[in-house]
Every structure is written in structure tokens, then in C-alpha cells.
Design goal:
Length: 178
């Protein structure tokens, strides 16, 4: 049997999924909630749905958007809408690539985030070591924070310090210049 004819749990073949990318879609969750957006991708192994949600101008460029990764086990059904309200695949990819650049270690956004984290710890009189050449921040020589300087990018052997550093990092909003 050809892999193109195999259906996903959403009743779509891989060919139909490829054609549906960029279309407006609604994901119905088992909890009863619905999420509307543009279908960015469906993982062929886990069947996780990536949905682009945001405000789009008439030229189909978003003023602000988010990407939702919706796990298969939480999905009741996927409803793909007509192609009339769709975004070109190339446009979707360019939007994602633009956002990825914001997370580069040497990007202005990451440098500003790094400064905010340093400022937070220094204002609380917590020792932080850093250098221009090393993107990692060293807190009390025990915790280490790597880009993008969020709670998931902290490594520490001491669970008490790790918990406290995560709490502090979560105070800093992650802003984007979209």
C-alpha cells in the first residue's frame, strides 16, 4: 500500500494534508474547546497539528501571530475549511523563518533578553557571571541559563536553586518585535 493513501487519524491522506497546508482550519479538542487558525503542518509520526493563529491584514502578512502545537491525544477532530481563505505555503514558511531569526543568539531580541535577565538578578543582589563571548549566564556559579533565557533553558544540579531561578525568569515577559 502506498504511503500517500494511508490516512491520518483526522481522515486525511498525506496528499490531502499537503494540499490543505495554509488553509483555514478548526481543531476541535476533546475538552470541547475549538482553536481556529491556519494549518501549518501535521507531524506524520505523532500527528501533532501545528496551527498558525494571528491577526492578518489584507495582504495576508500577520501583524502578530502565534504557533500552536496541538498534540494528537487532545484532538477530537480537524476541520479544514475551503481554500478561499488560505495563505500560500511560501508565505507561511517566510513568517516562521522571520520569527526564528529573533531567537538567534546574536539577535537584538536575545541580547535585550539577556540584559533583562542580568538586570533582574543583579537588582536582587544575586551573583551573575557573564561575558560578551559566552551566551550562557552563570547564576551563583550553580545555575546556568542559555538562550533564549527562559525557564526551560536553565540547568542546575540543586533543585532549590533551580526552582527559584525558574520563578525569577518567569517574571520577565518574552516580548517580540513582530
Amino acid at each position: 500500500m502506498s504511503q500517500n493513501l494511508i490516512e491520518s487519524p483526522y481522515g486525511l491522506t498525506f496528499i490531502e494534508i499537503a494540499k490543505a497546508l495554509g488553509n483555514s482550519a478548526t481543531v476541535h479538542l476533546k475538552s470541547g474547546r475549538k482553536i481556529d487558525g491556519y494549518l501549518y503542518n501535521i507531524d506524520p509520526t505523532t500527528f501533532t497539528i501545528l496551527l498558525l493563529k494571528g491577526e492578518f491584514s489584507e495582504s495576508k502578512n500577520p501583524n502578530e501571530f502565534k504557533i500552536f502545537a496541538i498534540m494528537n491525544h487532545a484532538i477530537d477532530k480537524l476541520q479544514v475549511k475551503s481554500t478561499e481563505d488560505s495563505i500560500q505555503k511560501e508565505t507561511l514558511d517566510s513568517l516562521i523563518n522571520t520569527r526564528i531569526e529573533e531567537f538567534a543568539v546574536d539577535s537584538e531580541e536575545m541580547q535585550q533578553r539577556k540584559k533583562s535577565v542580568i538586570s533582574l538578578f543583579e537588582s536582587n543582589r544575586i551573583p551573575v557571571k557573564y561575558s560578551l563571548k559566552d551566551p550562557t549566564l552563570h547564576i551563583m556559579e550553580r545555575a546556568h541559563i542559555n538562550p533564549p533565557y527562559v525557564s526551560d533553558s536553565i540547568s542546575c544540579d540543586n533543585e532549590i536553586i533551580l526552582k527559584r531561578v525558574k520563578e525569577m525568569i518567569s517574571q520577565i515577559p518574552f516580548s517580540s518585535s513582530t
